[in-house]
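User: I'm writing a tutorial on reading structure tokens. Could you give me a worked example: one chain, its sequence, then its tokens, then a sentence or two explaining what the tokens reveal?
Assistant: Sure. Here is the example chain.
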Amino acid sequence: MALWRVFTAIIIAICWKGCVGAKVEQLKVDVIGKAEHCEVKSKGKDVVSYHYCGRLTNGEEFDCSFNYGGPYIFTVGKGQVIEGMDKALTGVCVGDRLKITIPSHMAYGEGGSGNKIPPGATLIFWVKILQIERDGVNVVEPENMVDIFDKGKQAYFSENWPVSLYHMSTAAQLYNKQVSAITSCWSKCQQENNGSHLIGEAFVTFSYCVQKCEKRKLGRNFRFMDKKKIVSSLNSREVYNYMQHAQFKMGSPQEAASAAITYVHFNPTETSGHSNVRFYSAQKSVSTDVPIQGNPLPHVNAVRDAVAQYNAHNFEKSVELFEKAINLYRPAMEACFAECERNDSFAVPQTGSFTYDLALNYRNLLRCQLECPHKLEKIAGTHWDHLWAELYNFLQFSYFKVGKLDEAAAAVATAVLLWPDHKESRNNAVYYAKQGAAVEKFSA
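And here are its predicted structure tokens:
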């Protein structure tokens, strides 16, 4: 009997050791919040946008999309994310909230990843599905971005920083997507109408073309927003000021600095914004040499890079970058015109008279477009008077420093054309003429 008990104890001990030491090797997806309506589920080749926070089994966070100012976006089934995440996000719905447990062999395996994910680590992700695109079209209409922004403000004033950041970054993403789509539609319809779209029937045809394109890209309800709210909050990129403070409170000074710099770029007269940028600039661990977020006009980052090379006396490089900035200025103007189209659609009735409404909106459109040069002159929180002419002046001096007098003369001649009252440019043009340099203008 004693031997039998000993034998039984040994068997139990062996079994217990094996059971305790066994690893869970299966992917586990727990739905902690199900979408209210789900007509379409994600499948291969769909583009899925989602927010996530990832933790180890000991609760230590190793990554979170909120730290990057926007959601993560990937194409299902293309191997763009770890295997476990790719499989877990197949068959999900917009609005689903998930807890995903990914075993090591479906994540980073025995090699781990960097300093935060050790070898053999099981990963746990909390995920919310924001949007699914199929063939370039959203499968679900997006939530009203103004309402999302308002939710972000409510969370902000409640000092719920993660929730505020989530809503603010989502609102910014939707707004930026809308601006990009409308700019693309404006350019497309302008080409289809041979550049004629401001008078009479051509204006009507052009506006209908833009609306049709926008609906295809953004969905049926893309014009549900209150225009005044859009102009006062999202169009001024106020969202980045809220994001800056939330990021700072969450201990992410680099991301906070990036948001602060973007806010100042779009709001150069805001003294509080400049104070925030100075604060982050004084932090040794923070770099303020970051690109502008929030769909800056195409020339902005190019101008910043060109001026940096110019100030460093790297004139060969500054020639290249000022030429790039000049070439991007015209698309920037077209993008600004597209913004005016978005803000002043002729289809919004005002008086009940089609002809009079058309005239009113045409007037508003022209007023808005006349402001575009002023808008384009905002660079990294500073206003540049006569920016286009100044770019040619900088290009002229850069050419001069590398010994290309003919090119310098052409650049300054163009600057004079754009800014006839600029005395220094006129004097420079006279200097190059005396040197025998060609004075043929660039195409402005």
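What the tokens reveal: Strands lie at 28-33, 47-56, 61-64, 72-75, 97-102, 123-134, 137-138, 378-379, 382-383. Residues 238 and 263 are 7 Å apart (CA to CA).
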